[in-house]
Amino acid sequence: MSPTHEAILYGLICAALPLCGFAAEEPNTGIHSEPSDNVLSSFDIVHTRISSRDNIAIFQMTVESEAGLAKPRASGQLAGSQVYSYVWPTTLDPYEVGFEHDSGILALAVTAHPDFDDTPLFDEDGDNNTGNDGNLWHSHWVVLHANEQCGENALGVVDIPEGNKPRLPKTWPGLPILLDSPGWAPIFGEDSVEVRVAFDDIAPVSNARFDGVTAGLQVNASVHSPLLCVVNVFDIASGDLSLPGTIQP
To answer: I need a surface site. Which of 37, 46, 85, 112 has the fewest CB within 10 A?
Structure first.
């Protein structure tokens, strides 16, 4: 990620929080964060880590308690619907997972949203219907960028303009945004969430930095560009989104 991208992240998201800079990476242990009385325990981050083993990157986040318990309420329609997420923003080039070079801020996200399904290749609940699993936690690669149409000091998932045909991952779900549905299943513990991701080449991943974020997103009321915006940041592991985490073997 370029210094400009880091400045954008700091300015946009730190501005949404009452405190910044209260956590930092400790060698070999990831990012440790102080719990907050103002954040729901399911999204109150206390530890974030990415480690690697052979060609596998292991994304881990620990919260105060009850990881994965809170989910959005169904609204019965796509427009304006809510998404809850556990997110690892990284400095990794989106090209490494199938998007165009330097197309934005690449993040791994674990999301749940009861009003739509964006994993058309996978049947998470095993009922032989691949279109009704949005409320189950699942993983995505997302590419984020500053977008004033999402609101002042806001980020959105990068839209694909009509008629454009950018480089996309093979498991792109067909939505007009830079989002991938790779099928890496999140594993929840009582207070943690973990995702194991395989890479053809782990070297670029090993050199990346990361942070941890819990957030709410929202589908645009007109279901149009911008399609998906970050509207509510619950917590940031580092406190200032400085991406201090380094990936440990």
So the answer is: 37
